[in-house]
Design a protein that fits this description.
The chain is an alpha+beta fold and 316 residues long. The protein contains seven helices and 17 strands. A hairpin with a 7-residue loop joins strand 3 and strand 4.
Length: 316
Amino acid sequence: MKHKALNVAFVTAVVLGISALLFGNTGLKGDHGMRFNDLTPEEKRVIENKGTEAPGSGKFNLHDQPGVYVCRKCGFPLYLSEHKFHSGCGWPSFDGELPGRVARTPDPDGRRVEITCSRCGAHLGHVFEGESLTPKNTRHCVNSISLDFVPAFTEEGHEKAAFAGGCFWGVEHLMKAEPGVFSVTSGYTGGTVSRPTYEEVCTGKTGHFEAVMVTFDPAITDYRTLAKIFFEIHDPAQEGGQGPDIGSQYRSAVFHFTKKQGEIAAELIEQLKSKGLAVKTLLLPAGVFYQAEEYHQDYYERTGKVPYCHSRVKRF
């Protein structure tokens, strides 16, 4: 077994306690502590002091690639690339957002409605309605500087897929054996703390999942094939962990980079439910992925061991 939960919790608490004494507060407060990305003075002017970048100056104004736009301050996924359109206003425009991710607040003068990241309160821009620019009749006018972008493809043209199915050692080991898979990296995603360490993730206070980032050649395999394999190499009906590993970091989840990936994953989940499987897998937008420490990569290849809670079970 990878962990004995009580021992890990105790040791981690000691490690973080010593770290806090020696190096200051770890930033992990409450159930899900938050630690933000470092911002430049110009980013602070816009994001924290509600400034505005010059029109036409932002890197995402004419940006047109598949992926996910996330909050620059906290990394929270806000918009899919499918939400983006070219309005000609000089700032990135979106006619929709990921549900519950963008908050609206009327300006004090009542003339405009400000939009902010619903998690950290970072200023994004303003929202306008009734302009008839798209069928949704809504335009989120967003400062590029308030955003980061998580691409759905690598520079080499390999598509990305992100899965969480318990201990990332086993998921990585089995996924990388599939034809067309270029690389599989173990890491952390879905949390509220930037640059998390393994010890911090183990506390359960960062909200991260142990996950893998798969890159694959879409000319050899496809997302549907890999998603099916993911659902067959772990137990998607187990809640709160996987096998003997119990904890929020071991939850089952699919992180989609595009609307199409999300639709495929949702369809597969419904297929499994129709077969009587009480699927607990979460379907979430992809966000920032932090590569895990080097000693977690290629674990079974380096140690000669075999997965202890992952094996292939035919489900489709």
